Give the backbone structure.
Amino acid sequence: MSDRSSLRRPATTATSGGPRGGGVTDDEQFAEAPIPSPPSQSAAKHGRLGDRVFAGFATGAGVFMVVLIAAIGIFLLIQAIPPLADNKASFLFSRTWNADPADLNFGVLDLLLVTVFSSVFALVIAMPVSLGIALFLTQYAPRRAARPLAYLVDLLAAVPSIIYGLWGLEVLAPALSGFSVWLNENLGWIPIFADGNVSAQIGQTIFVAGIVLAVMLLPIITAVSREVFDRTPTPHLEGAIALGATKWEVIRTTVLPFGRPGYISASMLGLGRALGETIALLIILSTTTQFFGWSLFDGGDTIASKIARASAEFNDPKAAGAYVAAGLVLFALTFVVNAAARAIVAGHKEYE
Amino acid sequence: MAKRIDIKDLNLFYGSFHAVDGVTLAVPPRNVTAFIGPSGCGKSTVLRSLNRMHEVIPGARAEGQVLLDGEDIYSAAVDPVSVRRTIGMVFQRPNPFPTMSIRDNVVAGLRLAGVRDRKRLDEVAERALRGANLWAEVKDRLGKPGGGLSGGQQQRLCIARAIAVQPDVLLMDEPCSALDPISTLAIEDLIGELKKDYTIVIVTHNMQQAARVSDQTAFFNLAGVGQPGKLIEVDDTEKIFSNPSTKATEDYISGRFG
Amino acid sequence: MTTATTDLDRPATPPAFQEISPGRKFRNRLATVLVTGAFLVAMVPLVWVIWTVLAKGLHRVLNADWWQKSFGGLTSRNPGGGVYHAIYGTLLQGLLCAVIAVPIAIMVAVYLVEYGRRSRLAKAVTFTVDILSGVPSIVAALFLYALWVTTLGLPRSAFAVSLALVLLMIPVVVRTTEELLKIVPDELREASYALGIPKWKTIVKIVLPTAMSGIITGVMLALARVMGETAPVLVLVGYNQFINYDPFQGNMASLPLLMNSERLTTNAIGEARVWGAAVTLVLIITVFNLLGSLLSRLTAIKTK
Ligand SMILES: Nc1ncnc2c1ncn2[C@@H]1O[C@H](COP(=O)(O)OP(=O)(O)OP(=O)(O)O)[C@@H](O)[C@H]1O
Ligand SMILES: [Mg+2]
C-alpha cells in the first residue's frame, strides 16, 4: 500500500464502513499527518513548531524568574552605592540615621537591632502557641471539625497587616497598658522589661508591636507545621499506641520527633515574614530620638518601617539610595533566614 | 489502512539498564498479535517502543529498527507525534480525559488537531463509539463526563477515542486487566471485530485471552534477574498453545512456570 | 481502661488492664488542656480584630454615598463622602497585577513540571521562586522604585504598584500551579500523546484544564492577599482624594493607602473613614475568597 493512497482512503469507504468499519476518516487530517511519509508534511511541521514555541515560552518564563531575582539584587546595589560612597558614618555600625543628601550620615545598626529584636520577640510568643494549635488541629480536634477549625486559623492570615496595625495601636495598646506598666514596675530589673525610650503606658512599644506580629505569624507557622504533623507515618503512630502509650506520649515519641524539622523550618519562614513586616510596625511604633536600649518598652523603627516612613520624601536619588541600602540589608537578612528554613527541610526526604 | 510492522533487532534501555534484548518480529496487517510472558520481561516496553511512547520516559531509548510498511519510525525525519497518530494505543487502566464529555473524549484527537466542523465531529464520534460497541449505552448521555462511566465502558471509550483518529495499528497493553469478566468479554469481541480493519498488538497475562483473540503469539522471557528480557519464540497462536517449540514456552503456558 | 469500681465490688483477681500511673495521666490531661488552650488563644485576636473592625466601621459603610462618592473636595471636618475612588484603585491595581502575574506564573510552573524536570535551570528557577516568596513587600516596592522612578525616570503611578504586586503574586501562583500540575496523572498525558497530540497541545488542552479549578482558587486567594498590601502603595503612588481612572498617570487612592492617609486625620471623622475603609477592604477580601471557592466549585471536574 502506498502511503498516499492508504491515507487518502475515499471517504465513502469510511462512511459505508458500517458500525464495525471504524472508518472515521478525516481526509484533511490524515493528508497532513501521514506516517511514514516524507517529513515535509505540514502537520508534523506545525506540531514541531508549536512545541518549540511553547517550550520556548515556558523556558523563557523560567529564565525570567532567575533574571528577575538577579535584577532585584543588582538594581538595589547600584542605587545604594553612590550614597554609601558619600556616607560619613559607618553604614553597618553607626546607629544614627541622617539621609539628608547634603549631609549623608546614616547607619543601619539601630534599625537592624529593632528589626531583629521585635521579630525574635514575636517568634518567641508565636512558636509555642502555633505548636499547640498545630497539635490541636492534627491530633486532638475531632476529624470532622479539624478542617473548619483550621480554616478559622487561616483566616488570621487573610486580615491585611494595616488592620492589625490599627487594631494594635487603637485597641490592643490601651488594653495592655496596665499589664505593660506592671511588667515594667515589677520585672524592670530584667533588661528587656526595663524603662524604654517611649511610654510603656501609651504602648507604642516593641512589646505591643511584637504581640501583634506574633498574631500575624500564628497562621503561617501553624499551616506548615500542621502539614508535617499530618504526615507522621501511621506505622510509627500505631507502634506507639500498641505499646499502651497515652495520647501525649504518642505525640511526644512520634509526632514531635518526626515533625520537629518541619516545625523549625516553619518558624524560620515566620521569622522571615516578621523581619519584613512594614505597615503594622510603622503604625504601632512611636519614633524616638533615642537609641534602642534592649527594652521591650522601646519605640523606634525597623528597617522596613523606616523606609516606609520616609517613602513620601523619596525625591532625591541619593536620599532614596540610603534607604535602598537599608532595604538591601533587609533583603539579605530575609534571604538568609528563608534559605535556612528551606535547608532544614531539604535534608529530610520523608517530607517529600 | 492496516499496515504491517517489522521489528528488527530492537534493543531497549532505561538509562543504563538494558531492558529488552534483540527482538526481531513481524506483525502482519489485519491480524492480532499477542505478547505473553512473565512480569517484567519487557512486553510493555516493546509495545510502547512501537509508537515511540517510550520517549516520554526520561532516559528511555531504543536501538534497532521498527518498520511500518517498510518505513523506519525512528528515522530522524519522522515526527513522533505523527507516528502516534498512525499507531494508536490503549492503556491498562482506562484513562478518559476528566474535563471532557463522552463525545469530546472520542473526538479529542481530531479536535486538538484542528478539526472544527461540528457535524463531521459528531459523525466521527458516533462511528467510533459504534466501532467500540459503546454507542447503544452512551448515545443518550454524550454530553456527560467520561469519568461517570463504568470501568469497562471507560475502557471502550478509550478504544473509541483511539480509533477515532483512524490509526493503522492499535496497541493494547493489558486492556482488560482492570475489568470484570463481562466487560472483558465485550472487549475481546470488539478486538475480534476491529481486526478486520486494524493491525492489533495486545499484551496480556491471560492465556485464555491470548488463545481466544490472537492469530499469532509472541512469548517473552527473562534470562534471569537483572538480565534483559528476550523474545523466546513467536508463532501461530494455535501452534504456540498446542505444540510450542521451546520448553520454556510450554512451561509458561501450562502454568508450570517458576 | 479505668472503670468506676468501688472497693467493695473490685474483683479479687488483678484487673484485666494495667492502671496508668497518675503522673502519666496528669501529663496527658495537661497536654490536652494546653493544646486546646493554644487554639482558643488564637481565636481571641481573630474575634477581637473582626469585632473592632465592624464596631468601628460598619456604621460608616451602611450608606449609599460610601459606595458612590469619593472624599474629593472634603476636608477633615466634612463627615460625608465615600471610598469608591479607593475601591476602584484597589480593584484596578489587583486586576492589572493578575493580568501580568498569572500567565507568567503558570508558564513558570509549566516549565518546572512539564519541561524542566530536574534540570539545572529548573533547580535555579525553583530556588528563585523560593527567594521571591520570601522577599518582603517593602523590598519589592523599593526595587520597583529603583527601576521605575530612578532608572526609567517614570512618575510614580498605580501601574508601578501593580508591577510590585506582580513580584509578590508570582511565587504564590507558581507554587499552587506547580503542586496541581504534579498531581495530574501521567496517564492523561500518555493518552494524549498516544492520540498523536503534540506536547504543547497536551499541556494546554488536557493538563492545564484538569488543574484549572485549583489554579483559579489559588489565583483568587493570592489576589485577595496582594490587594491588602500597604508597603507598595506607600512607596509607589501618592494618595488622591479624587477618583483617577488612569493607572499610568497621577496619584490614585486604594483602600490601604486611604487608611494610611486618613489615620493622620485625628478626629472622629478620620476615625470613621479609616475603619469604614477597613470594613470595605475586609469585605472585598472576603468576596474574593468566596469567589475563589465558588469558581472552583463551578469549574471542578464532574463525573456525573
Ligand atoms: N520507567 C522505567 N524506568 C526504568 N525501568 C523500567 C521502567 N519501566 C520498566 N522498567 C523495567 O524494564 C523491565 C521491563 O518492564 P516492562 O514494564 O516492559 O515489563 P512487562 O513485561 O510489561 O511486565 P508486566 O507484565 O508486569 O507489565 C523491567 O525490569 C522494569 O523494571
Ligand atoms: Mg506491562
